[in-house]
Amino acid sequence: MDLCSYAEQLWHFYLTEEWTEKAAAFLQTLDEDIVVIGTGKHEFYESLAVFRKALQREEQERSEIHFTIESVSSKEKKCSEDVRLVYGTLHLVGTVENASVIVDMDCRYSVIFQKNPEGAWKIVHVHQSLPNREQHDGEYYPKTLVGQVQEAEIRARQMEELAKIDQLTGIFNHQSFFDECGKLSREKGPFCCMAIDLDNFKQINDVYGHLEGDQVLRETGRILREVSKGRGLAGRIGGDEFALFFAGLPSAEEAGKIAADILEQVRMRGETGPFPGFSIGIACMGEGERVREAFRRADQMLYQVKRGGKNAYQINPEYFAC
To answer: 110: how many CB neighbours lie within 10 A of its CB?
Structure first.
């Protein structure tokens, strides 16, 4: 007897044929003490009598869904002269008549045949199982819900961090910049604010096009990231307006050195292609002063630079220990 073929026919009958037509023939192959384990939590039957009752209870539900076996495979293993193990996989597709449910699943199964004293093969055990839907390819066991929640939280934090960044320049956007400045300002100072505006940026767009203008903004973001790295924050406030916020700059001289470095990088970049000058206004944040108020004073210095010829910096001496 080809037990692999018989096991495959068994699944075709059990899943796709009308139960009432071949029930007697099917049940004759089952041992009275058969153990059947299915995919459902309730599907654990320890005798043919219990399994019969379960089939009767499920008759209506079984009649409402129509299965198709897309593929089936099996192998036979000889356990002893009187015992054979047949195991393999099933790919099932099924639909309910009203199309409210669609089943598409890969099952794993095993069937144990034992030869009785009369020499007939009887099925003494059937096990059908589904992989845990939370289990990924290559995993030894599915991750716990806690692990999935932790991964979701990490992804949410990553998305939250991305939402803080201006996508063109790679530095903080307006709101996030001032939020982060507020957090940093709760630590020990002193704190220094720099308001930066690109000189005649509109001319870059008008003469060279917006793609070149975007490249200027990207390069500005790169310069400000490098200048602020490890000691401050950089942000795009809007359009061609930028800002820096530093902790630990105790003097106007130190602030001036940073501004001079920025202007030197701007000058060098201008030697390789169209690039605007920078007007920079600087203010030290006073004790108890709000971040935006300090930037308002830095803005005032910036517009003095604009009126004085642009591409330079100017410092508000208030609060600096010069």
So the answer is: 17
Which pair of tokens denotes residue 149? 């929640």
**Side chain identity at residue 139, one-letter code:** E
172 and 252 in contact (C-beta within 8 Å)? no
Cα 117 from Cα 120, distance rounded (Å): 8
The beta-carbon contacts of 162-168 under 8 Å, at least 24 apart in sequence, are 166/221, 166/235, 166/236, 168/214, 168/217, 168/218, 168/221, 168/236
Most confident of 10-19, 126-135, 218-227, 249-258: 218-227
CA distance 73 to 159: 44
Distances (CA, A) of 128 to 90, 104, 105, 112, 190: 9, 15, 12, 12, 70
- Across the strands, what pairs with 282? 194, 315
Q: Are 294 and 195 in contact (CB under 8 A)?
A: no
Cα distance from N-terminal residue to C-terminal residue, the chain: 100
The pLDDT tens digits for 272-310 are 889 999 999 999 998 889 999 999 999 999 999 999 999
Q: Which two tokens stand for residue 240?
A: 């061609």
Q: What is the DSSP letter of 319?
A: T
CB 274 within 8 A of CB 212: yes
Ranges 15-24, 107-116, 217-226: which has the least confidence: 15-24
Rg of the chain over Cα atoms, rounded to whole angstroms, equals 37
Residue 87, both tokens:
């195991």
Structure tokens at 49: 């009598």
For the record, the structure tokens of 65 come out as 């869904």
pTM for the model stands at: 0.55
Which three-class secondary structure state does DSSP give residue 274?
A: coil
DSSP E strand stretches across the chain:
30-37, 44-45, 65-80, 83-96, 102-115, 121-129, 191-198, 232-238, 241-247, 278-285, 313-316
